[in-house]
Amino acid sequence: MAITPADPAAVPVESPVTAPEIIPVLPALPTEHPSEAPLLAPTQYVPGKALYKQILPGIIQAPLDLLLGASRKSSLWPMTFGLACCAIEMIATYMAHYDLDRFGIVPWPSPRQSDVMIVAGTVTKKMAPSVKLLYEQMPGPKWVISMGACATNGGPYTRYDRVLQGVDKVVPVDVYVPGCPPRPEALIDSFIALQELIMEERKVQGK
Amino acid sequence: MVEVLSQTSDRSAEFETQDLLLNVGPQHPSTHGVFRMVMTVDGEVVRDVIPYIGYLHRGAEKLCETMDFRQGIGFMDRTEYLAAFNAELSYVMAVEALADLEVPERAQWIRMILSELNRLSSHFMFLGAFGVDTGVFGTPFIYAWREREALIDLFEEVSGDRMMYAYFRPGGVAWDVPINFVDRVKEVLKSSAQGIDDFDSLLSENEIFLARTQGVGAISAERAIALGMSGPSLRASGVDMDIRRDEPYLKYDELEWDVITGDHGDVFDRYYCRVLEMRESIKIISQCLDRLAPGPILPEKMPRMLRTPPGEVYLRTEAPRGEYGVYMVSRGGNRPYRCKVRSSCLSNLQALHELTVGEYVADAIIILGSIDIVLSEVDR
Amino acid sequence: MTTEPAEEQFTNQIGDHTEIWSIVDNALLGIGVTRETGFMDVIISVETDEIVEASRALRDDEDANFDYLRSLTAVDNMADGMEVVYHLYSISKKHNVTVKVFLSNESLRLPTVTSIWPAANWLEREVAEMFGIKFSGHPDPRNLLMPEEIDDTFPLRKDHPLAEIEVLQGEGMGYSGEEL
Fold first, then answer.
1. Binding-face residues of C in 141-170 toward B, CB within 8 A
2. Spatial contact of B349 and B56, defined as CB atoms under 8 Å apart
3. Minimal Cα distance from C146: which residue of B?
4. Is the pTM of this model over 0.90?
5. CATH code reported for the domain at B60-379
């Protein structure tokens, strides 16, 4: 439906509710109708001011890579790939006590619809081909979080020859989380680091 | 990954059916870890199941031979990560048997309390995962983790870690428990008792749950004994075996509690034995709390580097999943010459073939869940 | 042939073993064994070709009734050969015995006991792939924990080395793989 700006000559309607006492610490709220606010031309974007207060209501302008990066980082769906003990701490991070759902992170069993692969646990040489296959089944853009000491470099089991000394020998890793097992707070920290990474390397085309 | 074999089944005359080869795992939302089974399925009925394990074989036994008796405790933690206190207990008691160490009484009561609390937390995890397997997606898991977080907070106050405690040492425990330990344990017991009641009311009388689990995956007592099963999976078939009562260790012979056995050996009995076992654990812990008295927690003359004379011992304890044994051979020195872990889950998993053949595909997942395996113990 | 129980006792032995000696003696009449007393259980050793007969006698005898195979493992004694260790338990009578079979490095073969205790199926598969001991008559002699195609490395043997830590970063990191 078309949005028509209101007639600037119309008399503003008095609000029956009295405004609350304004505490000086907070910034002053706009008291005039937004359609009477001075309109910015669509190509003028003033950084630092909330866009919705300045231009037509319902339209937000932002650089495309900012929007793509923000939407990708806010809805990371990890593939449930718990291998060993770190899987228990990963599940603990999903559960109600240390909630990951508030970041938009929903565990998803299928690789075809997930964004992140959290390799939680020791990767053995028998399991390594499956890890590689699952990574290749994920559509881009995709990231890998290597959780725990075993996925980083083999961990306490590194001297055994059936253990792969780090999952970065088969898949490219973006974030390494130390710990045996890492605390749920460390895993949340790794997701925040991954979000910063996604915003840093955001592009419109390509990964 | 589906292959169609050219073998036809001889059941019906009108339709010519073929068997499907279905691969479950190693990455699958319900296989409780990296476990793979290849099922030959005729319609919905499983004709054959071949389990493949070894995706988490990390060589704990070989690495224990290179570590001294205190460093090896960390490997036992990681072998059975849901019941780490019980795993440490077997190892540490084996070292004490070889080195002839006398454990002070306070340390024994502390060990009992923590082992039984760990049994509670491990069974809570089972209830959560089993509820998800049967289709009650979400609610049991969240309940389970609510209870587990309370227990894990207590373990963190005592030992410093949420999951890999390394708190039991040969001779006793590493350091004394915090001052408010008894009050904290009573708090946790109250919330755990409420949690068990929550689960009981959610699942045990649920019509759909009963229809899914009763009569499914039954095994007789003779077959269960012959296959080497242990723990609640064996007791659900009616076999009255519990190492805490039959070959008592620590101070279990001074307490009063019941051993829970089932009647039919089906999936519901294996589930319900664990629920009732949790209530018995609460009884045990309350009795231990009354008997906990101040005292030393390590023997007076503890050597800095523990050396054992030559000998061998097979020490078994009742872990939440069954009989967790450590067969330790020592040739003198400060490391074991051979440290074999008798894994309860490996022996329980051998019965999977017998339990699953003839059942539906959906029941195969429930049967696997009811055996309650932890893959790092199966593969070590 | 059977001999008198060993008089020398370990100082920290748990429990009195005279009763279990007599039960085991009665069960194994005719089968040659040598014995010793361990820390918790009595240990008997049997010859390679008599293990199946001894196992059946131990399981079927009414007083012994060892119907539960607790554990089956092996120990590599380097130059002295290997030993396969069976831990048995009787659920009805609640007693234990440990049975050992000593093998020399030249002939690492012995018959399977899967026909007596089906629990031995996977346990023997694991011993076979970890130590290289062959169990003749085993219904399913595939690798259990190792990948199927590997049949020449036996990780739990004493001469199998530990892996070296692979350091992938360049020189000048301050440590080399051998120091770790």
1. 143-147, 155-156, 160, 162
2. no
3. B54
4. no
5. 1.10.645.10
